[in-house]
Predict the 3D structure of the following.
Amino acid sequence: MGRKIQFRRGPEAERLQTVLANGEPGWSPETKQFFIGDGESLGGVPVEMGHSHIITADTAAIVGCKYAFKAPCKLHLPATANEGERIAFCVLSSSTVDDNNKAQVIAANGLIKDGEAGTEYHTALFTQRVAVFINSKWEIL
């Protein structure tokens, strides 16, 4: 019979104040997100997940996650992240998003798309984008 392996897990607020040891796995049951410790970063380094969070209301994004807009709403990117961390997002073809009812990605500390700076990005149907944290700002690729 196989052995049971347990990951460190607990409330998201507690994870954000914990440094996971180098290689130590962590799980956030609240966000359903997996993290690996590097021995330095609070909360660990997020592992990009294979599933998408379907969003229909304004949502605070978590690094390493993927988001799929099903309705017009705002995805708020975190103010800080580790250099190079990513958040992926797209609009579902079955969504109610259109030119008048937009899916918005918001970054209060700055957002860069095609060399232009701002704080808001409107994403389009059938386009998957990735926001990467570089030089204290989110850049959309």
